[in-house]
Amino acid sequence: MSVSEPSRPFSVCVFCGARPGSDPRFLEIARRAGALLAACGATVVYGGGSVGMMGALADAALAEGGEVLGVIPAVLMNREVGHRELSRLEVVADMQVRKQRMIELSDAFLTLPGGLGTLDELFEVLTLRQLGEHAKPIVVVSDAGYFDALAASLQAFVGHGLAGERDVAALELFPTIETALARLGLAASPAARATPVPSGSAA
For every one of its 203 residues, what pLDDT tens digit does the chain have, with 9 covering 90 and above? Predict the structure, then answer.
């Protein structure tokens, strides 16, 4: 008789800026994401920094009693100020290992406003999904239209025949953090919580 492995909390990898941004709303989005994910009982996986939106996300999740796992390259421990109060902080060799580890630890990917590093992480998981390396949901919060131009550019790539419609459609845009989490089957009230979208490798 086989013994099944104990279930673990649904893990959501959050990509967002290491800077605070020019508008206070960016930090507020990060705080709300962290608090809601913790209230849903989801584990937050992120880049391990304690500054900018990354720090606001982690601090809010921890304040709600959530589990937060950070993955940070040694070279960024000072620049992004590695967060020392996390449930677990993994210091890895480089950026590529960081992305690989975050992907391994996660059941879904949530992207908030950010800069070049955020886009790098987002396109990494989108490309890997295109290649069939995973089938995990990829949701993006386009607060106040932040990512609308990016979505339009992706559709232009499809129109030029250089990207597939199905591959681009794997990136799902939502106007608020609440609608993005609902897509993942996560609700702040445990009584109303749906079963999270299953993830795994594509066949």
Answer: 444 445 678 999 999 999 999 999 999 999 999 999 999 999 999 999 999 999 999 999 999 999 999 999 998 887 768 999 999 999 999 999 999 999 999 999 999 999 999 999 999 999 999 999 999 999 999 999 999 999 999 999 999 999 999 999 999 999 999 999 999 999 764 433 333 444 443 33
Residues 6+ apart with CB under 8 A from 52: 16, 17, 18, 19, 20, 21, 27, 80
Contact 172, 129 (CB under 8 A): no
Q: 203: buried, middle or exposed (CB in 10 Å: 19+, 13-18, 0-12)? A: exposed
pTM: 0.89
Contact indicator for 13, 102 with CB cutoff of 8 Å? yes
d(CA 61, CA 137): 21
Report the length, in residues, of the chain: 203
